[in-house]
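Thread amino acids onto this structure.
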């Protein structure tokens, strides 16, 4: 029994014969020949190992085994037809699930597109995880989400990364800072400033550290803080300068006490990428969301 091999076609043939009480009527309904129906039923019977029909004076009746199979068959066929319906719905995007993970800074812009996307596809259930780059890489390695949005894609994982929009990195200072009114500040002058840095594992932090080391300018770290919000508050409070995505600056509450410095080479235009595991079969929903993101990049731009 364990190795029983039956096909959906055999089950359909059997169910039709059982329902109509005739091989020829079943053949007509299924648009196949009568010998084809008989063959399917015979093969099914061989797999089951017991007769499914008995012929009594030219009429056919279900045996006990046939009766049992008919019940199971009805359940299978109805489950299968539900499945076919669900697939059709999915293709029509009437339902589905999308799980995305975005880096910390992504929370400032990805939700702006989620709103209209959810309105356009109300049957799609969206879950968005917000984590820093390190946590996001762990999720990516474990294949936990449909797609990822990040600024510094890894080069040691088998992924596809597709640039989405520009991620302008800027230098911010309290509005009372002496450099706030200066123009064309040289990058080297930043060596004299104290910086507030994101936590280890942050993509922004990796970028800032690489930048200073590439330019061979010492980076003077005043304090490490675990979020963009904490950094903005600390900058406003005069604790130091910071380099962050312009996306993170741009919040609904405004940031009156913080200004963008005019440093040569800034804004440093990097990108936000849509990252997917190479070889992962993306769902219809995930592909639709990716297309939607690209078609609505305007919504994502910092104001
Ligand atoms: P972060 O990542 O928000 O963890 O700093 C940003 C990035 O990946 O560039």
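Threaded sequence (303 positions):
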């Amino acid at each position: 029994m364990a190795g029983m091999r039956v096909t959906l076609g055999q089950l359909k043939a059997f169910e039709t014969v059982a329902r109509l009480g005739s091989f020829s009527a079943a053949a007509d309904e299924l648009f196949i020949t009568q010998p084809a129906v008989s063959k399917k039923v015979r093969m099914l019977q061989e797999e089951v190992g017991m007769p499914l029909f008995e012929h009594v004076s030219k009429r056919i009746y279900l045996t006990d085994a046939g009766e049992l199979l008919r019940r199971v068959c009805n359940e299978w066929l109805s489950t299968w037809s539900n499945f076919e319906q669900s697939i059709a719905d999915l293709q029509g995007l009437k339902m589905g699930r999308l799980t995305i993970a975005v880096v910390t800074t992504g929370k400032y812009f990805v939700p702006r597109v989620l709103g209209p996307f959810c309105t356009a596809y109300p049957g799609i259930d969206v879950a968005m995880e917000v984590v820093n780059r390190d946590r996001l890489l762990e999720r990516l390695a474990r294949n936990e989400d449909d797609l990822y949005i990040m600024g510094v894609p890894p080069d040691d994982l088998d992924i596809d990364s597709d640039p989405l929009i520009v991620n302008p990195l800027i230098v911010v200072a309290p509005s009372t800072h002496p450099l706030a009114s200066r123009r064309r500040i040289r990058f080297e002058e930043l060596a004299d400033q104290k910086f507030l840095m994101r936590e280890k594992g942050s993509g922004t932090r990796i970028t800032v550290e690489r930048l200073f080391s590439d330019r061979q300018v010492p980076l003077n770290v005043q304090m490490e803080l675990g979020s963009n919000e904490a950094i903005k508050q600390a900058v406003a409070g005069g604790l130091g300068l910071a380099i962050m995505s312009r996306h993170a600056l741009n919040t609904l509450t405004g940031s009156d006490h913080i200004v963008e410095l005019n440093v040569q080479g800034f804004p440093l235009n990097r990108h936000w990428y849509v990252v997917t595991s190479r070889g992962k079969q993306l769902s219809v929903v995930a592909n639709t969301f990716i297309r939607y993101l690209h078609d609505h990049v305007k919504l994502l731009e910092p104001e």
